[in-house]
């Protein structure tokens, strides 16, 4: 199963984003999932809305996966909420991160 990770990024450094993502990647790979990298590093064009630019790239990636894994805090992130809605409307399987007591 090809899986994309949706995670809140606003206010976090690249190192924090990658550290948070690494834990999830390890867990999903242990379950046999193929992780599709969705961390957009491409710079938006001048005068572009950076958040919307990255969201558009995310949607392109989402079109190629079987499921999207939503990390803790996704409900507070605009982009993650829009990705959730797109999954719902286009029939892509959604996976919520387990709570803090999960292994």
What does this protein structure show overall?
Strands 2-1-3-4 form a four-stranded parallel β-sheet. It starts with a strand and ends in a 7-residue tail after the last strand. It contains three helices and four strands, in the order E-H-E-H-E-H-E. The chain is 42% helix and 16% strand. It has helices at 14-30, 50-62, 78-90, and strands at 2-6, 34-36, 67-70, 93-96. By secondary structure, it is of the alpha/beta class.
| Highest CATH level, the class | Alpha Beta
Output mean pLDDT: 89
Terminal Cα separation, in Å?
21 Å
Rg calculated over all Cα atoms: 13 Å
- Provide the number of structural domains: 1
Alpha-beta classification: alpha/beta
Strand content: 15-25%
**Second CATH tier, the architecture:** 3-Layer(aba) Sandwich
What attributes does this structure have?
103 residues, alpha/beta, 4 strands, Rossmann fold, single chain, 3 helices
């Amino acid at each position: 199963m090809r899986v994309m990770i949706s995670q809140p990024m606003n206010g976090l450094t690249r190192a924090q984003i990658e550290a948070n993502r690494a834990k999830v990647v390890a867990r999903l790979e242990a379950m046999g999932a193929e992780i599709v990298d969705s961390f957009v590093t491409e710079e938006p064009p001048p005068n572009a809305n950076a958040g919307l630019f990255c969201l558009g790239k995310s949607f392109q990636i989402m079109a190629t996966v079987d499921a999207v894994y939503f990390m803790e805090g996704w409900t507070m992130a605009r982009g993650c909420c829009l990705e959730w809605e797109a999954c719902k409307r286009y029939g892509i399987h959604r996976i919520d991160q387990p709570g803090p007591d999960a292994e």
